[in-house]
Amino acid sequence: MKKVWIFLSSMRFAIILLGVLAAACAAGSFITQGQSLEWYASVYSKRTAALIVALRLDDVYHSWWFLLMALFLCGNLLACSVVRLPRVLRLTRSAADPEALLAGPATVTREGVADPEALFLAMRMPKPKRAQVSGREALVSAQNRAGYWGAWICHLGILLLILGFGLGQMTHREWVAYGVPGRTCQVGDTDYLLTIDDFRVDLRADDTVEQYTADITVRSTLTGEARSARISVNAPAELFGYKYYQNSTGWAARVTVEKDGETLQDEVLCAGEYLRVTDLPDLAVYFNAFYPDYVLLEGRGPATASGSLNNPGYLYSLYYQENLVGMNALLAGEEIKVDGYVIRFSEPRNYTVIQVKRDRFAPLALAGGLVTTLGLLLALYVQPRAVWAVRDDAGKWTVSGLSPKGGVLFAERFAEAAGDVEKQTT
Length: 426
What we know:
Layout: H1 2-8, H2 11-30, H3 37-43, H4 46-54, H5 64-94, H6 98-103, E1 108-113, H7 116-122, E2 129-133, E3 136-143, H8 150-171, E4 173-179, E5 184-186, E6 192-203, E7 209-220, E8 226-232, E9 237-239, E10 242-259, E11 262-270, E12 274-276, E13 283-291, E14 294-297, E15 301-304, E16 313-320, E17 323-331, E18 336-338, E19 341-358, H9 362-381, E20 385-391, E21 397-402, H10 407-425
Antiparallel strand pairs: 1-21, 2-3, 3-20, 4-19, 5-6, 6-7, 7-8, 9-10, 10-11, 10-19, 12-13, 13-16, 14-15, 16-17, 18-19, 20-21
Helix pairs in contact: 2-5, 3-4, 5-8, 8-9
C-alpha cells in the first residue's frame, strides 16, 4: 500500500494523467462534438463512427473516463500537497532557526569578517537576531520565506482550477434568447421571463459596427420580482444568478397577412422563423434571410452591396402542406399572393441574440486561477535567503549564506558585499 500511495502521489503519475488528458483534449478538438452516429458515419466510416460513439469521443469533456482522469489528477495534486506540506513547513521554520542553519548546508561562507552586521546591511537583510548556539554567539537573519510556498500554492491553485472547471462543465446551464425590442420570451426551462426593452447598433464613421447594446428586464414568474440591466459585447450583466451576454444580431421584419382587404395577422418575424397562416394552417411562409442593399450576383445568387437600407430584399420560402412550393426575394412594395391571401414584408429592423448562462462553480475556477498565479509569482520571483554569523572562541566571525533558488547570483552578491565591507573596515 505504501508503494501504491507513493506512486499515486508522484510526479510521474501526474505526468501520465496530464498526457492522457492532453490526448483527450486533442481528440475533442479534431473530432466534431455532439453529432449523431449517422453524421459520423457519413464523415468517416461506419466502423470509425461506432468506435467514436463507443469511446464517447463525440462528447469527450463529459465522458466518464475523462471525468475519471480529471478526478485522479485532482487526487494526485491533493496527495502531493499533503505529502509535501510537512517539508514546506519544516523549510519555513528552519530558515530562521539558528541551530538548523548551522547544522545544514550553506551556499557561501566567509571567514574572518570584522563587522558581520555591516555585511547583513550590505546584503539588505532584515536586522539580525542574536542567539546562542552550542555556547557560541550567533546572528541570524532570514527573508522571503514565502518563496518556499510557491510550488505548494501553485499545486493548490491548479487543484481548485480543475475542480471549478470540471464541476462547472458538469452542472452549467446555457440558453439562447432572441428578438426585437418589446418581445418577451421564456429563459429555457427556468422560472424567468426575459423582455428586450431596447436594442441599439452603434456604427463608426465608416459604417462598421462599433458596439451592440441591449436593455433587458428579467422577471421571476414565482415572485414577480423584476430586474433590469444594460448589456453589450464584452459587458454582460448578472441577474438572479444568471449571466446575460450580448451575443450577436440579425435582421427581422414585419410580416402581414391580408385577405379581402382585411388584416388577419401582423407579426414581427426574425430571419430563420416561419409564420403559419391561421385561416389556412397548411400554408406557411419562411423568412430565410434579409439583404439591406439587395443585389443579385450572376452565378452567386442574392447578396447585399452594403450595410445600409438602400434596397431592402427579403428572401422567403413558401410551403403548402409542408412541401416547398416557391422561393423568391421580395423588394420594397412587392407582395406574395396565393389563394386569395396577400403576404407583405416591411419595416426591417435588427434583433438581438442574448446568451444566458449559469455556472455556479465559475468563482471556484477564478479563485483557482488567482491562487495559481500567486504560486507562480512566489516560486519564480520570491527567493528565500538566510544569512547567519557565528563567533568563535577567538572572537572571529564566520558569516554564511543560504539561497536554495538562484544560488550562483546570491554567492556573487555575497562576495561583492563582503568585499565592500572589508574595504570600509580597513
